[in-house]
User: Which sequence fits this backbone?
């Protein structure tokens, strides 16, 4: 039975309300790996998609997830429903503005 609990079903909700997934991930999966999965599965027809993992923020249970944490470490007790799907919200940071354009 432990093998079932080690897998978490996750779907990624994009800002326009569409979803990527759900897909099963082991509890030992890092947040950085989840972000790589989002990048790989990002719909090509959507504008302003992320270019790198640094452009992506994942939010679960109201918390921004850190790259070095695992799914198991980030899992909320509210999401501990057997057979349930956890929804993580995806936020894409816009590229930073060029600093040399602003002169004081």
Assistant:
């Amino acid at each position: 039975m432990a093998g079932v609990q080690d897998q978490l079903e996750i779907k990624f909700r994009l800002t326009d309300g569409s979803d990527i997934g759900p897909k099963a991930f082991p509890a030992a999966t890092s947040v950085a790996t989840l972000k790589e999965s989002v990048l790989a599965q990002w719909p090509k027809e959507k504008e302003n998609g992320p270019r790198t993992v640094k452009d992506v923020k994942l939010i679960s249970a109201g918390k921004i997830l850190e790259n070095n944490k695992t799914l198991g470490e980030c899992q909320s007790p509210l999401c501990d429903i057997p057979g349930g799907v956890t929804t993580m919200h995806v936020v894409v940071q816009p590229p930073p503005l060029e600093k040399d354009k602003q002169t004081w």
User: Anything to note?
Assistant: The two ends are 63 Å apart (CA to CA). The mean pLDDT is 83. The CA atoms of residues 8 and 25 lie 5 Å apart. Strands lie at 7-13, 19-26, 56-60, 63-64, 85-92.
